[in-house]
Amino acid sequence: MSHRSWPSLSGFGAALIGAFSGCLMPGQAGASDFPSLQDLYTGSYRLPPSEGPKPVTGKKIWFVSCSQDVSLCAAEAAGTQEAGRLLGWDTTIFDGKYDPAVMANGIRQAIAGKFDAIVLAGADCNGVKGPLAEARDSGLKIVSIEGVDCSVSDPGEPSLFDAAVTYVEGDLIPWVKKYGAWQADYVIAKTGGKAETIVLVSDEVLVSKLTSEATIEELKRCPGCTVHEVSFSYGSQGPQLQQLAEQALLRFPNANSLIVPADSVILSGVGPAIEASGRDLVVVAAEGQEATMNLVRAGSRQVSAGVGIPSAWEGYAAVDALNRVFNGQPAANSGAGLQVFDKDHNAGTAGAFNASTDFIAVYKKAWGITE
């Protein structure tokens, strides 16, 4: 998922898709079937691998960032560059600007520049399939961070990723589905199983769509909960998104909670709409960008909580995966998982969300770095 915005592929959508509520039905669950708040705060993080092949030195890496204007994307890039430097690699960061055409151009620049590998962050394979195939044909290795391979989105297509960052929950898709479910679980716990939740949904990016679908599915399992699904376009963040959120809040005056698939949705319209409404909702954002974390720490009504993404960790994991690929070995599980944060738990004192595990020390051990 990537849990980030993507350019609009169609006009701005604001259609209400549906609302669901009712008593206990097949597939619904009792209170004990949902994670407790303590489970969510504890999270699922594990340690990354402490052993690995000897680092291959002297590699040139081309990092295609989803957008350097977004702190999550920039943190992935910085983590990759920092980890690569430890291995003696030269990493160049290319800003994809959330534009598949720009990313495609960037991939072709890596081919022309005779780089050894590409790390593609926050982009699905099918959006840049042609250039990726050209890169593979030119001998470049390709590692993905939060992107869906062509063979996954279309089983008839070949895989174009040599490796991808994986998580405690498994590959990207199981991870983002659990991510979406945990967003719902927080709301269910905070409302005592009586959530009436507005869920903002976009189908422009597969990972974002899967995240929101998992959120809705989990809320439907709650017999005392109601779901209001509202469509939006990532390409229309700002005044249009704020207007959509204002309309949704007016349409559902009894809603006590709201969930979005990415922090940018809060920061670029939904948050100001909530602030203007004066309503105190349980608002669950996503990855924990610095601006989001600052609102959470301040106790702002714009956002109550989120499910933190360890962006720098993903960068280190991508470098570890590449080193294993260069050594003819499969990538290892990163150990990164999920963890809920709110004002009183896992919020830290400054900056973006940061997992408490010292993953850097473990990766250094795996790479034989003793400094």
Layout of helices and strands, plus pairs?
Blueprint: E1 16-20, H1 37-42, E2 60-65, H2 71-86, E3 90-95, H3 100-112, E4 117-121, H4 129-137, E5 141-145, H5 150-153, E6 163-164, H6 172-190, E7 196-201, H7 206-220, E8 226-231, H8 239-251, E9 257-259, H9 263-277, E10 282-284, H10 290-297, E11 305-307, H11 311-326, E12 340-342, H12 359-366
Mean pLDDT: 91
SS summary, helix count: 12
- The second-level CATH architecture of the domain at 16-43 and 172-307 is 3-Layer(aba) Sandwich
The first-to-last residue Cα distance is 35 Å
Strand order of the largest sheet: 1-8-7-9-10
Q: What is the CATH C level class of the domain at 16-43 and 172-307, in words?
A: Alpha Beta
> What is the chains' assembly state?
single chain
Biggest beta sheet summary: 5 strands, mixed
User: Which bin fits the share of residues in helices?
Assistant: 25-40%
Overall geometric form: globular
Structural class: alpha/beta
Portion in beta strands: 5-15%
> Could you state the CATH homologous superfamily of the domain at 16-43 and 172-307?
Response regulator
Overall radius of gyration:
20 Å
Q: Which fold name is given in CATH as the topology of the domain at 16-43 and 172-307? A: Rossmann fold
How do the SSEs run, as a string of H and E?
Answer: EHEHEHEHEHEHEHEHEHEHEHEH
Q: How many strands in all?
A: 12
The unreliable regions are 5-24
